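Late entry, evening session. Most of the bench is empty. Finally got around to the prediction I had been postponing all week. Sequence below, unchanged from the version circulated by S.P.
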Amino acid sequence: MRARISSRIIFILVILALGGCNLQRNMLYYPDSYLPSQEAMAARGMAFWPNGPDNYRGFISRVQADKKYKGTIVVFHGNAGTAADRTYYVSTLAPLGYRVILAEYPGYGGRKGTPGEEVFRNDAKETVRLASEKYGGPLFLLGESLGCGVAASIAKGSPVKIDGLILITPWDTLLSVAKEHFPWFPVRLFLRDKYDNIGNLREYKGRIAVIGAEQDEIVPIHHAQALFASLRGHKKMWTVPGAGHNNWPDIVDQKWWQEITVFIEEIRN
């Protein structure tokens, strides 16, 4: 009887391991297929980038030809919704003098593709390369939750110089977060995507701003603290008091954003 039970357990674990990609995808990625019109985005001060909706990689803040920008900030959003949902980054960062690109992932919005770490990393590197080629530097990356994993993977092997990172509600490793949420489940068996932010940022030399939400229920703040402790370069951490994983934008103000951007601009090697 004991041997039979053991065989069943092994069988279940094998099935989980073989089906891990689909299981992981369903648990980690929540894409939305919503694609706003060009008119709707224009009303929000945005345009499809680098061109129209048939071949876009994201959205860019309204470009003023005669304006001298402090730099370009490429935003990589969290695992749900689309880039079009993150226009609050434009309303806060554009007035501070930055060109803002809201990068979209394959499989999200109107973009074709299947969500996954390797797919996201390769696509994001091309987005960053195009932004650098078109606008030059300085170039900054902003990651939000899952987007921190994308930004960190680019910083590890970017084809262009990344002058600074802003990581909002990040984790240390995806595995550590998954194990905390599912302590009874063999997550290591089915977790194909690693998003190891500690490993990917180990050698990064630029400035890194880390922002944790004090009451984060999705990625508890100790994961951001563990990541911050592992960083070797110029770094600073902010904690948003009383904030959860999704409502932190309602708590911070423009003065707070200015403090963050001043920090990442202070030293550019």
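Two things to note before I forget:
The beta strands are 30-31, 46-49, 58-61, 71-76, 80-81, 98-103, 139-144, 164-168, 207-213, 235-240.
The CA atoms of residues 153 and 188 lie 20 Å apart.
Will write this up properly tomorrow.
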